[in-house]
Amino acid sequence: MKQRIITGILFGIVVILLLFLNGWTRLTLIALIPLLSSIEYLKMTKGNILQYILILLTTCGIYFLGAFANADLLLILAFCFINSILIINLFVKRPFISHQILSGLIGGIYIVGPFIFALSKNIHFNNKEILISSVLLIWVADSSAYFVGSQIGKRKLFEKISPKKTWEGFFGAGMCTLIAAYILGSIWNLYDLQFWVWFGLIVWILGALGDLIASHVKRLNNTKDSGSILPGHGGFYDRFDALIFILPFILLLLQINQAI
After folding, report:
1. Which helix (H) or strand (E) holds 164?
2. How many domains does the chain have?
């Protein structure tokens, strides 16, 4: 437990520093998350050379479309569609995510794609407030869900995949996340209240689903943690599973807000 606390504090300080310093440090973080997470994902799913090639080709294709083609909304909707299928995958008896080729494609589109697209649009320079708020709200949601769930949690949220999560923790996280989103919106003063309400809902609800999907992948592959790079916390995929999942929906929210 002591090692977990120390690692968590040090890791949190590093992430906050990378986010706050400048665009180049944010670039470093945004590049490391999909790179290390996809490697851990492939190791968990016993990836072969074909899967690595599929992820590489998917990454190159997404960067090309994001940087040079007028297909922003289509790409974002494609990311959201893949993630929606992953939600359905939680409820089926024979999850297709365990299929080797599909696993490679999913690794490329689900884990790497949104980050590559975000980089092609210079989100690390143009939307630092959104990146910082995403990470902070995810931490608020995780911490409050754990605290509320450990104190009063009785009803299991999704016992077969993540036995420790409860409905009480889920709703406690929702209340705290929406309050924190309102506070951040007041601090940044960039978007209206409706934007921050939607932002908070995305982090709360879809972030929780992203965490369940990561747990599902690990359970299907009989793995407790995605890696050991962070002692007591697992790997990058473990730490950023919620951000990986919600990023396409945040990008969609930004697109909608820009169009209004």
Report:
1. strand 162-166
2. 1
